[in-house]
Amino acid sequence: MTDPLLTRKPGRIDRVTVPPMVFFAIEGQGAPGGAEHRPAVEALYGLAYGARFAGKAQGHDEKVGPLEGLWWSEDYAVFQPGGDREAWRWRMMIRAPGWLGAEAFEDLRRAVMAKKGAGVFARVTLWPFDEGLCLQALHLGPYAEEGPLIARIHDQAAAEGLALTGLHHEIYLSDPRRVAPEKLKTILRQPVRAGD
């Protein structure tokens, strides 16, 4: 079944209300694909696929969702072309299956760490996230070309009297290892609230 929150026409800005969800999540700092980011993402996938297989054994059949990321910095300039990507802060996430509670998560994490070592797996948490009202759009193309659409989302929020809240959120619908940069699909999401 297709997730209606992720089915969008490229470039169109939509207002959506995102329900509360629970994620496998890990926080860090550094360039996407860099020395800290890559193993963090690998740990998320390791736990997400571990949960999928454990769930199937119990009669659950939930697929692994897309990788998602929240991005921020104390200095917005680092996100401009030529900015210091090592200063980027992030929380990478993959939605956890609905059947997975805190105890089952700890059992899963212990089992994975027993096979692969604690390492980065010890930093992954089961994280509830209630984003609520958002503006979002589907970006088609390289990640480096998201800026104009992000600016349009911010402009539309201002035009609608909405204040920006929360962190910039990206949902990666394509695997950059298998999809050409010009065909990458990324949901860009910005939490908002009615302005004062």
Automatic annotation (TrEMBL):
Pfam short name (any one): GyrI-like
Domain GyrI-like small molecule binding: 16-192
InterPro entries: GyrI-like (IPR029442), Reg_factor_effector_dom_sf (IPR011256)
Domain of life, per lineage: Bacteria
Matching Gene3D superfamilies: Regulatory factor, effector binding domain
Protein's recorded name: GyrI-like small molecule binding domain-containing protein
